[in-house]
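#struct-help
A.M.: can someone run this one for me? Single chain, 162 residues.
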Amino acid sequence: MSNKPKGKLDAITFIYGFGAAVVLVGAMFKFLGWQFANELFIVGLSIEAVVFLISAFERKTDDKDYNWENVFPQLSQTGSDNPDTQSYGDALSQFSQTLGTMTNELKSVSESLNQIKVELQSSAQNASEMKEKMSDFNSLMDNYNSNLRAVNDKYNQMLSSK
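D.P.: on it. Structure tokens below:
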């Protein structure tokens, strides 16, 4: 068994949960066509209405703002000779250097992408030109084939007339 400390039971939350359970059981009774479904709905919804009415007037305690000084003691100390403040400054300096390095690397990546873009545009232009040349070549080959057929037809006519 666990010996964890248990929180306090909140009466409003308990009654709200109980009312919700009664409404759900009433819904089940209604779906199945059992008796007392309407009564369970009336009791459950009435409990819910009372809980909502009570919770409308319930006062909550204000949560205390978090004290960041407990996590970052550098925030509460103003002396620059403090080692914590110096380590904080060193961390900021290191962060700045890292950010500068990342910026330079991003510029390099951007330049590389621009070069790739230029190369792809050039390749697309070359492919377009090659397509035009292939189209011209195909046209010439079609013309050559039709001329060769005409020569073959004339040759066949000469052979058959002899």
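A.M.: thanks! The mean pLDDT is 84.
D.P.: also worth noting: Residues 83-161 form the longest helix (79 residues).
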